[in-house]
Model the fold of this input.
Amino acid sequence: MNGKNNLAAISDRTGYSVSTVSRVLSGKAEKYRISQSAVERITKEARRCGYRPNLVAQSLRTRQSQTVGLVVPGIDNPFFATLASIIISQLDARGYHTLLADSRESEREERQALEMFQDRGVDGILAVPVASSPEFHEEVGANVPLVLIDRYFQETSLSYVCTDNYAGAYMAAQYLVDKGYRRILAIQGVPASMPNRERVRGFLDAIKGHGVESRVVGDAFSVENGSRETLAAFAGNPGAYDAVFAFSATILIGTISALRKLGLTEGTDVGVISYDNNGFLDFMNPPVTRVEQPLQEAGEIAVEALFSLMEAHRSSLPRPAPVQQLVRPTLIIRESC
Amino acid sequence: MNGKNNLAAISDRTGYSVSTVSRVLSGKAEKYRISQSAVERITKEARRCGYRPNLVAQSLRTRQSQTVGLVVPGIDNPFFATLASIIISQLDARGYHTLLADSRESEREERQALEMFQDRGVDGILAVPVASSPEFHEEVGANVPLVLIDRYFQETSLSYVCTDNYAGAYMAAQYLVDKGYRRILAIQGVPASMPNRERVRGFLDAIKGHGVESRVVGDAFSVENGSRETLAAFAGNPGAYDAVFAFSATILIGTISALRKLGLTEGTDVGVISYDNNGFLDFMNPPVTRVEQPLQEAGEIAVEALFSLMEAHRSSLPRPAPVQQLVRPTLIIRESC
DNA sequence: ATAAACAGCGCAATCGTTTGCGCAAAAATG
DNA sequence: CATTTTTGCGCAAACGATTGCGCTGTTTAT
Done:
């Protein structure tokens, strides 16, 4: 084309100043009482040459980027992929774009991502935190609106929206107990994470006083962890446990894979129950009983909370009280235990 | 803190000009022959106050953003989630950040995303295109490095990296024929997309001359489509087909769900075969035979291609010849047919 | 001794937009 | 007709970083 395609170019071609062109094209024409004739001439020229504002310059000047940063501990995990999908849709619906980062469960990478978000001037941040203590997140949260999701910290003033992992695990364990299982292996995810700790607590509380032998093992929300721990527990002792509680769908896959390798069948030889929902779980053999987390709802609440923080931030109003909410999961009963 | 935290502030506090501070902090000290003493004083002060460059300003000035845009047709689809995950990791490893957009199979939203990417000055774009013709993408590709992935266009000068869908579908169909199936229902995804067209072509070519009755139905890579089409095909006529070829894992889920609802069992009553790989497929009942696409490999090649385009673009060198590559899928044989 | 080379750094323009302030002309008021 | 108000628009300074050019002073070559 004609080389440049910015306000200055339109200014040149219409004879109006850059200021006027800017005001017209950013919809502030009447606020600044620009004449009808100017508005028409300018919008016509802008349309003609397909003008599009440079968002980088706009961000620099206005300190708003129409972008939020989202950091998750592993986008390859279907759970976080689903969560990300839900959040991206929500943001999109509000006209915001998403910078997506993956911390891979690493505190260092998480810090980098959060710093990068700030350096790029995002308007807000949604994070599934990985760090073991809230200091850094709180520091970041003091500068830019920040809402935690899925994981959170004790005693923090940050907003968070999570599912009630204590209740979820409690329901699952109680169900196993009711079904008569008495030797239960729980395979956990990342031990330090709040959801995991809450699940362990819910699990232990539910089996307490029922004469259940149990062990909690494992260290990651991964297929590999599920497989390794299951092998370790059952190899050489096929009757070691009568049920397995997998703390995530990924872990479940590892567990089932290992059971099969050992010649055990889930559901009959060993009861299994899982966390997370997933279209596949209904078509496994047997269909898997599981705790479903209301991710859509959690995502909606989190985004809502973030936007009210952002709104206050924009107007330099006092920060609204933090939203700290747990949403209730539900037990989906099938045939695996 | 001390209010601002930019080059000017450091300039004030050290007595050196903004230029010198900039050159030191952006690692160009020796190129511009800055003295040791200046370098030390400045880096010390920068460390003290935790200086971090404003990436928005940097982008505006240098026209580089260390960002690439990624647009997929549905991040909620596990296939694209996996692809996105792979690509984000690759970009991250090269120090690039990712703006992720979801076109939801809508040409309009795809255009919006691509335009937004340009407005934000991304350094490159990776796209799973949705449009039916390449014009718009070619236009964009003329301005900013662009590589297509998973889907592509005929006769385009754009780079693309996809799997060989013709070969994949051919293998699958041939396997069904070899197994003796003669009435095959193929449930396709988005009809106009190149992978889908190639799969249809591969499917039809493979069954040709073998006396196979077949129909190709459906219009989306979704669970709902799989379920709807399966119901329509088998309701009132349980023996309508002896095998179903699902063109994606999501479609497969819908198909199995529908078969069960109709009292049919996949594998025995009706053979099923699927496209895509997925940890769950091995643990369904029965385990599902499927065509696995080498996504990791495709992602690596695509990112590699993108970076060589970006490199040339940065140095205003002539654009290297487009990379147009198909990578070969493999058939994973299990027990569902 | 004079010129040339070089070391070390700053000036000021630039990227594209936004916006407070002010200025002139036109319109309204007394 | 003199004053005030309103209308319509432009000047220029931001936002924070980068970089071509040039300016001083010192060192080296001729």
About this structure: Residues 308 and 320 of chain B are 8 Å apart (CA to CA).
